[in-house]
């Protein structure tokens, strides 16, 4: 039986919206220049500044549209990727390895076979179901879910690297536009430009640090042993829980505010007899280099041998995965 996993319409619609917005701004700018006679050199300069400033948004819009236009088909023998009438497939028995790109602009699961590879976006609809199916059928994925005590989960340096690169790129773009706009008579007002650079760097750096801190929930490292679970935070002291005080480990749906938007998430939550809880989000798992789906299976193997079940089917099991 074939199963189809599509990219969410959000990406394609966002790309089209951005393209339409840039096109409208182009038209407004052209009409403004035509209706208000100005010096031709000033008009050309203004047009070039606007085009340069809008290019990143055009590239981003096209990327969103392309990224949101594909789908994956999983059957008993292979997984097939389709986009714009083109296909690429990998037989499941030929998959020799995989890599999870947990924290990057486009998180993905990359499957490797002799002579080819296939990248599966983690943003596709019902990715959890696809990963579970691949885990059952692909030996390399199933073997990678094995772990032994003590086992540690820690934020990777690449997480901070990606965020730092993004912040620096944004600062350079804004300061570059400011450099062009502040040139008066071919010379730059160095004092004003220095003030602008300082203000922009402080605002963007502070905002970026706040977003990273809130995204990780201040978690930096989790250590799992047969007797206890230890959580180390970026700020503050470590916290410890005894394994025998665990009452449940489950994927618990709830709404969350993320980077200004409200979304439904399914974090992995440890509930303890003391009434305390430990929540592991997709963002923290990705910052550590693996998906929450893979982490959940690793924890099953560490603390339990039973197969995960849904809460509706069996409430007596310790670890459960919600139907989506």
Question: What attributes characterize this protein structure?
Answer:
324 residues; PH-domain like; four-stranded antiparallel β-sheet; 44% helix
Topology:
Elements: E1 3-6, H1 9-35, H2 40-67, E2 71-74, E3 78-83, E4 86-91, E5 97-101, E6 108-113, E7 116-121, H3 127-137, H4 139-144, E8 151-154, H5 157-181, E9 183-184, E10 187-188, H6 190-216, E11 219-224, E12 228-233, E13 239-242, E14 246-251, E15 254-258, E16 261-265, E17 268-272, E18 277-280, H7 282-287, H8 292-303, E19 319-320
Parallel strand pairs: 14-19
Antiparallel strand pairs: 1-2, 2-3, 3-4, 5-6, 6-7, 8-11, 9-10, 11-12, 12-13, 14-17, 15-16, 17-18
Word description of this protein:
- The chain is 44% helix and 27% strand.
- It has eight helices and 19 strands.
- The two termini are 20 Å apart.
- It has two domains: 1-144, Roll (PH-domain like), CATH 2.30.29; 147-324, no CATH class.
- Residues 305-324 have low confidence and may be disordered.
- With 324 residues, it is of the alpha+beta class.
- It has helices at residues 9-35, 40-67, 127-137, 139-144, 157-181, 190-216, 282-287, 292-303, and strands at residues 3-6, 71-74, 78-83, 86-91, 97-101, 108-113, 116-121, 151-154, 183-184, 187-188, 219-224, 228-233, 239-242, 246-251, 254-258, 261-265, 268-272, 277-280, 319-320.
- A hairpin with a 5-residue loop joins strand 12 (228-233) and strand 13 (239-242).
- The strands form six sheets. Strands 1-2-3-4 form a four-stranded antiparallel sheet, with no helix packed on it. A four-stranded antiparallel sheet has the order 8-11-12-13. Strands 18-17-14-19 form a four-stranded mixed sheet.
